[in-house]
Specification:
The chain is of the alpha+beta class. It is built from 14 helices and 16 strands. The strands form six sheets. Strands 4-5-6-7 form a four-stranded mixed sheet. The longest helix is centred in the last third of the chain and has 37 residues. It is elongated and about 230 Å long.
């Protein structure tokens, strides 16, 4: 304290004001650093909630005594307890939001409830339940479902219902696959609703997410090409190693619906259908008589004996054979999405072989190995030469791709990274360091140097005081005055005896001039422990 008082007394008014201001700023900076270090690291708990849901969450946090911070429409809590708070709030049914489900039907009583009121409440309940199911997807942060279903009347035929879903994605966005899943979810939950009658609206972008038909020929071709590519890559890299092969597969598919009917007749392939045989036999007899006389008219006359007779017999056979030609009828239907042609291109890296001089030389893979790989690829993709498929494999040098090394962040990898908080800490620390090094330290060091220079005692003077107080003062030698340094000439003039300067007077003068040092020496003697006899 005495030293600080001495230093303070040596400073002028300007330096005193500078020291006071710098000290105050450093003190405030240290307090800010301590406060920021003690403040918990807040992490996002919920964002984008409705005012009602946010109020329920804050009320629950107040009831649990949890510190939180509200920034715009987001709620932040301590990062250490964030996951546990989410589970606790989920057990309480929070955040509930404004979506109500089938609990709307609990408030309906049988008295005074018409069929129209029940139908409207049931439709609202179904919309709420569908919204809850959609919100179970981690990619969806908000959802609203609207179902348009006409009432049943005896004068109107049944109409197809429609629906629209407005969804808001989380930080990762909404993928087309998720939108398609939501479309089929809503269509399956409403009777008579078709997937193409459900519209999905992205509320973040204000756009309608189109329907992706799984039977689209282009999509079917892309899916098959991706599947074949994975299979070929796995097959090739098993031989060449990971990263040493590049595979591209193109699958051309039919986009038109085509029906082909073919009818062929084979003249050489006759088939007997039926055989018909007809046989005809014909007999005839001709007789020619003589002249007509009386004798020929008599029964016993000679007329019969004298006549000429002739006989004829004719036999005919007719056979009819019916043949049927060989006929082939073929009906071929080509649906959209059928494979029209497959093209595969594979680029494999070569091998590195040591040269005679010890260097490493790149060499392409041998033709035998390329041929074997080509056979494997053809078998993997279902190669069909008649269809016009092609497989091309080439061995070329691939440039080495070196992945950048990620530095090991140590403990920082497991801690939340708050850029703003770290920036505030760095700025405050820099201000405190600059004030301490370049403002306070130079002033204090200069004051201490001046004080030590003004109060420093020569080595001979300190020794003389110790000798005087210890009672061992010796007369100085005759040449003391010549050997004394010039710095002691400032001592007051003392009487000189025959042997030189009087030691007692010299001691008194030193005590009068150096009172602080004398008091410190006496105090050290008094407080010193007694030595054992």
């Amino acid at each position: 304290m005495q030293q600080f008082t001495n230093v303070w007394s040596k400073l002028d008014m300007r330096r005193r004001m500078i020291v006071i201001g710098a000290t105050a700023i450093v003190f405030v900076g240290v307090l800010l650093l301590a406060r920021m270090a003690a403040q918990p690291n807040y992490a996002l708990l919920y964002s984008g909630l409705s005012p009602k849901a946010s109020g329920e969450v804050l009320a629950s946090l107040d009831g649990q005594g949890v510190a939180y911070d509200v920034r715009n429409s987001a709620i932040y809590v301590d990062a250490v307890h964030r996951d546990a708070l989410r589970l606790t709030l989920a057990a309480e049914g929070l955040p509930s939001g404004d979506v109500n489900g089938y609990e709307l039907l609990d408030s309906l009583s049988g008295f005074g409830t018409t069929s129209q009121m029940f139908d409207a409440a049931y439709l609202r309940a179904k919309e709420g339940e569908l919204a809850r199911t959609i919100l179970a997807n981690p990619q969806i942060s908000a959802a609203r479902v609207h179902i348009a279903q006409s009432t049943k009347t005896p004068f109107r035929k049944g109409s197809t219902p429609t629906a629209s879903v407005s969804i808001r994605g989380s930080a990762g966005g909404i993928t087309p696959a998720s939108a398609e899943a939501i479309r089929y979810l809503v269509a399956s939950a409403v009777s008579g609703l078709q997937p193409e009658s459900v519209s999905i609206i992205n509320a973040d972008l204000g756009t309608v997410m189109s329907l992706e038909d799984s039977s689209n020929p282009l999509r079917v071709g892309m899916d098959r090409a991706e599947l074949l590519k994975r299979n070929v890559e796995r097959l090739i890299e098993a031989r060449t190693g990971v990263g040493n092969a590049i595979v591209e597969v193109n699958v051309e598919t039919l986009t038109d619906d085509e029906l082909i009917t073919e009818r062929r007749f084979d003249p050489e392939g006759r088939v007997v259908v039926s055989t018909q045989t007809q046989e005809t036999s014909k007999n005839s007899q001709n007789s020619q008589g003589g002249d007509v006389t009386v004798a020929s008219n008599l029964p016993d006359g000679d007329a019969a004996a004298g006549s000429d007779q002739s006989n004829s017999q004719n036999t005919e056979t007719q056979e009819t054979v019916n043949y049927e030609l060989s006929e082939t009828t073929r009906e071929l239907r080509k649906l959209p999405g059928s494979i029209k042609r497959i093209s595969v291109a594979v680029l494999v890296d070569g091998t590195e072989q040591p040269a005679a001089d010890g260097s490493i030389v790149w060499e392409p893979r041998p033709a035998e190995e390329i041929a074997m790989l080509e056979e494997l690829v053809k078998s993997a993709v279902g190669y069909d030469e008649a269809r016009g498929d092609s497989v091309t494999i080439r061995s070329l040098e691939l440039p080495a791709v070196v992945a950048p090394e990620q530095p090991d962040a140590g403990w920082a990898t497991s801690q939340p990274f708050d850029v703003m908080k770290l920036s505030q800490l760095a700025a405050t620390s820099l201000v405190v360091l600059v004030l301490g090094l370049f403002v306070i330290r130079p002033i204090v060091v200069s004051a201490l140097a001046n004080s030590q220079q003004s109060i420093a005692l020569p080595q001979e003077t300190n020794a003389e005081i110790g000798q005087a107080l210890s009672g061992e003062i010796q007369d100085p030698p005759s040449n003391m005055s010549a050997s004394r340094p010039q710095s002691n000439t400032s001592l007051p003039s003392l009487p000189v005896t025959d042997l030189g300067v009087d030691p007692v007077e010299r001691l008194k003068a030193l005590i009068d001039e150096r009172q602080d040092e004398t008091v410190e020496i006496l105090r050290s003697w008094i407080e010193a422990p007694e030595e054992p006899a």
